[in-house]
Amino acid sequence: MWCRAFLAAALAAAGAAAWAQGATGTPIRIVVPYPAGGGADIVTRRIAERAKDILGQPIVVENKTGAATAIGALAVQNAPPDGHTLLLATSTTLAVNPNLQRNLAYAPDKLVPVAALQAVPFMLGVNRQSPIASLRELPAYAQAHPGMVNYGTLGVGSSNHMLGGLLEKRAPGLVSIHYQSSGQAMLALARGDIHLYFDGISTSVARVNAGELRGLAVTSRQRVPAVPGIPTVEEAGFPELGLSIWYGLVAPAGTPEAVIRRLNAAFNQVLAQPEVIGFMTADGTAPMAMTPEAFGTLIREDRAVWKRAIDALQMRLE
To answer: Of 95, 100, 262, 264, which is most buried, counting CB atoms within 10 Å of its CB?
Structure first.
């Protein structure tokens, strides 16, 4: 038995070493902890399609949804640390949940940074027929209509729920309504079932530019070139709402450094392609090419930012 275990470990190490130097025939699996067709899924598939050509091996995208990304995170955490299984992690996975949930199903320190991909601010949107003309006017409108103005979220403790909670502090009386997916929330906003929604900007830009929705503010530090007429939350007088998210790839702890370096270089090459820069700019996001070390620093800093927001809301989940 000892010999078999030793042989298996030796073969695994040899395989990882060989892959660090070049392609293998084994597909890379990227687990996306969000439904197919959403912003995270779409950008992952578009980037994976380009990365497979650079790496010289297939990349399969698999959706494992549920439990605020925990199901997908746990699946990757428990996968062999050979570089063939990656998680599309977000701020929710590695910055929000560790501060928000007392009993995480996965261990963030068992997932190591590989490559940051995309910075994604939120857009606060309203129905095109909404009487709310601007974010600055919202507190007065909410005060005049107590309990009658609501906002959509993706569930208790979701990032847009927390943004809504911070907004409630300035506009008391807002009511939260929870949805299972961003698609459902956006449909509710378009129909007028909800009045406000903090959406990951990539799925809002086209609707705003088509006149289907109106954007009140974006949570980025600067205005977004794709919708230059929409002010930032800071310009509107709500700097505490300046929270954004990111998408990036992480691997099981123990993945060889040489494998991580090879993956990082490939995905950074993709992010430098003019077509990728173009489609990200067009949907209001931005590429985030950086080293694994810089990505690790970003995760730590983002965790501290979200901790301040969660502490302000006094929000904790079991």
So the answer is: 95
